[in-house]
Amino acid sequence: MVATLYDQSWHQSKRLNMEQEEGNLERLLKWAAECGISDSKCRGLSCLGHSLVVSYFHGAGGRGLGAARDLEKGELVLKVPKWALFTRESLLLKDDQLSVAVNAHSSLSSTQTLTVCLLYEMGKGKTSWWHPYLINLPRSYDIIATFGEFEKQAMQVDDAIWAADKAISKAEFEWKETNALMEQLKLKPQLRTFRAWLWASATVSSRTMHIPWDGAGCLCPVGDLFNYSAPVEESDFENMEHRTHDLALQDISTVNGETSCILDMEQLDSDSGRLTDGRFENDVGAYCFYAKKSYRKGEQVLLSYGTYTNLELLEHYGFLLNENPNDKVFVPLEPEIYSSCSWPKESLYIHQSGKPSFALLSALRLWATPANRRRSVGHLAYSGLQLSVENELFVMRWISNKCNSTMKNLPTTFEEDSLLLSVIDKIQNVNAPLEFANVSSVSTDEICTFRANVLKKGETDSKTLVSGKMQRSRERWKLAVKWRLGYKKILVDCISVCDEMIRVLCSQISHS
Ligand SMILES: C[S@@+](CC[C@H](N)C(=O)[O-])C[C@H]1O[C@@H](n2cnc3c(N)ncnc32)[C@H](O)[C@@H]1O
């Protein structure tokens, strides 16, 4: 009975929240139309409806933009005029107090300043010109800087834990540096907390778009409702690898002894055209968004924010993709492997498909060659050619063993993680008995630690608060488990790729 009443009030408050959200969204679209934001050539009462509509896409980003009609590839689908962009420039121009304070703290980075500006604007409440936009921002985020110790450790892999540690300490450091500015601006105490800072910096990290005149970028009302799809063009992807390869070849011709080359990865980025489908256009004076492909009416229209691995998506955007063509795994390599070739470290990885990268194969082939012969076969290795059947067999066995030992060093297996992921959503109540068939003892320990963690954090909270905290904490835990599962899946696939190659090579030997 108590549970039923509790459920009823939870559903009631959920319905009220939904009604409020719908009202907020209507206000945003009306305000946006007044600002000249439009998905069509003619201005109307609402800014959307001609090309796009706001919809909810379960499992694909939640709130997002759908096609209001069939859209053709390359069509302009949304225009957001410059004056509607939330930028440092537009904020400082509108507010003298803010402008004086910000100018007195010029050592802060452009991103730190934009983050403070966002908190300052939030502090104005309904009097802010941006209020209809601000009330539609998400209330919480799951970027890794928001991960607690439990979620961080749940990622299991050293590189990921290190990335989380770095993100958390960077956020703390940047927040402390801005305290004096926030004090000068007399921000309300709740807006000066680390929690508020995390919210604002996550907003900036996950929603800003590139503008040529400010490194911090801009918040783009309505334009920031596009969810993400990874750029998958094979040609771009392949080109990147070949460019890397050509540059390494250029370098090897000038390499003298052990000199190693550092490729200009930024140049590679700019050469690849950055793979985005929205940009600020000076002649139009607006941010313009184009359909990257053709869409059928009702389909979600997506934007490529850039090329990211799942760890990077988690770090900057707080989500990851089940199938991310740009995901990669870096396995720890012996220092001699790096020093025996001129490939940059970041090119030595395993693709999401399980295939070792071009550079990793080339580096291992060279490393597996006696040092006194490396110079004479270097040009073949850098061209991506096999050096000999024996060399290739050694390399394939080495990679397969490396993937195996990397996985064995992690606390749980791929199968255990898959099972854990399938039961995480069933952990609805921190006090309910644990009855999950087939879950391993290590995973049961992890579930118990999760529950103890939620209970400890919510010691002084009401039931409703504990339930809310549990949901948020569970979402972050799920992201951590999903991430490590994706990592292990790549290793498992790589072992299959190598084992198949070993089989083919062995049959070649037996036939010769
Ligand atoms: C620019 S906003 C997009 C709109 C956002 N869904 C909203 O409701 O405001 C970016 C955020 O949307 C979510 N998101 C975008 N694409 C996603 C995807 N493919 N899968 C899951 N979440 C996604 C992530 O939370 C990300 O930080």
UniProtKB/TrEMBL annotation:
E.C. numbers: 2.1.1.43
InterPro entries per record: Rubisco_LSMT_subst-bd (IPR015353), Rubisco_LSMT_subst-bd_sf (IPR036464), SET_dom (IPR001214), SET_dom_sf (IPR046341), SETD3_SETD6_MTase (IPR050600)
A UniProt-annotated Pfam family: Rubis-subs-bind
Molecular-function GO term, any one: protein-lysine N-methyltransferase activity
GO terms under biological process: methylation
Ranges in a coiled coil: none
Enzyme class: transferase
Assigned keywords, A-Z: Methyltransferase, S-adenosyl-L-methionine, Transferase
Residues of the SET domain: 50-306
PANTHER family the UniProt entry points to: PROTEIN SET DOMAIN GROUP 40, UNCHARACTERIZED PUTATIVE METHYLTRANSFERASE
Protein name according to UniProt: Putative histone-lysine N-methyltransferase chromatin remodeling SET family
Protein's organism: Rosa chinensis (China rose)
Lineage of the organism: Eukaryota, Viridiplantae, Streptophyta, Embryophyta, Tracheophyta
